[in-house]
């Protein structure tokens, strides 16, 4: 009997996947263990093995297409077996075909007063959802320009998500007629990214297509009152920052009418800028939002808008997708988990001596961070309440120790995970952390290396930060913040001497970790760090 193969969940956060390549074609014999396809998730591209044997009877997701987890990927069975019922059930379940037909019909319709006809071959390409957490994407680079011919499978653009920059393939063939999001600009998932077709069309038809798409997807917009004109203007904005100078001034058209988008007109009015003194960079010299919102006041501007003294300047740097994702996740953690903080100061003299002795061995080099990670893993083993996760109906207490290690990268930070850290020695921890750090900066970490943490450690001591607090990396219940080792006067055996100390702060989710529980964990951690030889016993 035929077997349905669904889109697999290749990570704990995966919600959809893209088939980048099929290794089998319809009619091929498939054996258990054969590689069926390469599937791209939001984090990596992985090979997907077949767990069935038989003939490949049907492919449900063609190369370059994406689909949610559990969607029909393929059907394997006996040669000649009737699978029409399986395919029809899948179509009915999704209800996609009717929706697609309805959208196409709505696009083709025109108002009684609008005789513009939209060609049948037009395809609207929308901003894809390339990761499970992606809400908007940034076009890092267009590989095809307007007017170029596009073949199915061509790389249209490089799109930056909250986690990585990915190549986006075209699923259609034709001519690239319109680019809705310029390089460096961001747009929400399902916003108009591009228009592809085989017919030559003018800007009026493009505006009509965009407006029809916006209308059909109106429910996805947060601000439903946003006017059609503003949305179209946003889609066709092109050039970045402009300067106003005498050379850039333009005269009014002969008919006295200045071409300007409603949004640009509103901004100009608020800033007191005369539209006659602005050179428009939109189609036909139209003044658009960016022409008035990013004026460089350091240039020779007209007297009417010049500042009387000094120059106010700033740089506006677009937020990367990773930066936005970090902001969203940390805000959610801060406002959903009731944080409290426990700060302690550890005597590091013995740890310093331990590290110096350890590093005297050939081909051995460990850091204080490695020592603290090992000590944390052992302390968590004795305090599982800290190694936990809050759920609405229960608290999960993990027996395994998976340490998340915060690593700074160019756009923010990532948290690769040391799996079973309590079973690793200090040297192994150091080796793995160095490898994670190097590959994180090159965006080469695998999805499985970023998942499953039960506790997180963040270290800013190498930047001479003495003490700080971190926001909990949910769904963990706690995170440890490590400061720098400093020398200062301390009292030992009733005498004031120079000592080396380090401050650590434990941030806890009060729903799952009480104050006493966190304090007992820190006491155990202190014992390991101030007496590091105990970690070897």
Structural notes for this entry:
By secondary structure, this protein is α+β, with helices and mostly antiparallel strands. It has three domains: 3-94, RNA polymerase II/Efflux pump adaptor protein, barrel-sandwich hybrid domain (OB fold (Dihydrolipoamide Acetyltransferase, E2P)); 100-222, Beta Barrel (OB fold (Dihydrolipoamide Acetyltransferase, E2P)); 321-536, Chloramphenicol Acetyltransferase (2-Layer Sandwich). The chain has eleven helices and 26 strands. It has helices spanning 84-94, 96-108, 203-216, 228-236, 262-271, 289-293, 321-336, 349-358, 368-382, 426-441, 515-530, and strands spanning 3-6, 16-22, 29-30, 35-40, 45-49, 54-59, 66-68, 72-77, 123-126, 136-142, 149-150, 155-160, 165-169, 174-179, 186-188, 192-197, 339-347, 388-390, 395-397, 403-405, 407-409, 412-414, 417-418, 455-459, 478-492, 495-509. The strands form seven sheets. Strands 17-26-25-24-20-23 form a six-stranded mixed sheet. It has a four-stranded antiparallel sheet with strand order 1-8-6-3, covered by helices on one side. Strands 5-4-2-7 form a four-stranded antiparallel sheet, with no helix packed on it. Helix 3 (203-216) packs across helix 4, helix 9 (368-382) packs across helix 10 and helix 9 (368-382) packs across helix 11 (515-530). It is globular. The two termini are 58 Å apart.
């Amino acid at each position: 009997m035929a077997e349905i193969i669904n889109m697999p969940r290749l990570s704990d956060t995966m919600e959809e996947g893209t088939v980048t390549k099929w290794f089998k074609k319809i009619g091929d014999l498939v054996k258990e263990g054969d590689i069926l396809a390469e599937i791209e998730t939001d984090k990596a591209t992985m090979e997907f093995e077949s767990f069935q044997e038989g003939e490949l009877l049907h492919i449900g997701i063609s190369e370059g297409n994406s689909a949610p987890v559990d969607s029909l990927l393929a059907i394997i069975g006996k040669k000649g077996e009737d699978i029409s019922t399986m395919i029809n059930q899948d179509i009915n379940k999704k209800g996609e075909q009717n929706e697609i037909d309805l959208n196409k019909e709505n696009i083709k319709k025109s108002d009684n007063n609008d005789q513009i006809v939209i060609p049948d071959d037009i395809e609207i390409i929308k901003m894809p959802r390339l990761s499970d957490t992606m809400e908007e994407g940034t076009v890092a680079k267009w590989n095809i320009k307007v007017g170029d011919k596009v073949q199915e499978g061509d790389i249209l653009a490089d799109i930056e998500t909250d986690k990585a920059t990915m190549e986006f393939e075209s699923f259609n063939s034709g001519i690239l007629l319109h680019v809705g999001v310029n390089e460096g600009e961001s747009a929400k998932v399902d916003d108009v990214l591009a228009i592809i077709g085989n017919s030559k069309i003018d800007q009026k038809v493009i505006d009509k297509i965009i407006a029809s798409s916006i209308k059909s997807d109106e429910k996805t917009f947060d601000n439903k009152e946003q006017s059609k004109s503003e949305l179209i203007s946003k889609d066709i904005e092109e050039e970045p920052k402009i300067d106003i100078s005498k050379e850039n001034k333009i005269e009014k058209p002969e008919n006295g009418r200045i071409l300007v988008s409603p949004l640009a007109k509103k901004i100009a009015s608020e800033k007191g800028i005369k539209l006659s003194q602005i050179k428009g960079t939109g189609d036909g010299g139209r003044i658009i939002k960016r022409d008035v919102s990013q004026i460089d006041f350091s240039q020779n501007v007209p007297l009417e808008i010049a500042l009387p003294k000094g120059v106010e300047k700033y740089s506006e740097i677009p937020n990367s997708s990773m930066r936005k994702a970090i902001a969203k996740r940390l805000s959610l953690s801060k406002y959903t988990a009731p944080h409290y903080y426990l700060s302690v100061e550890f005597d590091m003299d013995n740890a310093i001596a331990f590290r110096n002795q350890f590093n005297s061995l050939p081909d051995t080099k460990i850091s204080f961070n490695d020592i603290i990670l090992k000590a944390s893993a052992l302390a968590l083993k004795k305090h599982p309440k800290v190694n936990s996760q809050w759920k609405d109906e229960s608290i999960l207490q993990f027996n395994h120790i998976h340490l998340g290690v915060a690593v700074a990268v160019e756009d923010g930070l990532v948290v690769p995970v040391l799996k079973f850290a309590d079973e690793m020695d200090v040297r192994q921890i150091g080796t793995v952390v160095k490898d994670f750090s190097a590959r994180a900066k090159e965006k080469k970490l695998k999805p499985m290396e970023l998942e499953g943490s039960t506790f997180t450690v963040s270290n800013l001591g190498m930047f001479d930060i003495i003490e700080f607090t971190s926001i909990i990396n949910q769904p963990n219940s706690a995170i440890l913040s490590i400061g720098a080792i400093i020398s200062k006067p301390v009292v030992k055996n009733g005498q004031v001497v120079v000592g080396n100390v380090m401050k650590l702060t434990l941030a806890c989710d009060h729903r799952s970790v009480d104050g006493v529980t966190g304090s007992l964990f820190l006491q155990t951690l202190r014992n390991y760090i101030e007496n590091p030889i105990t970690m070897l016993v």
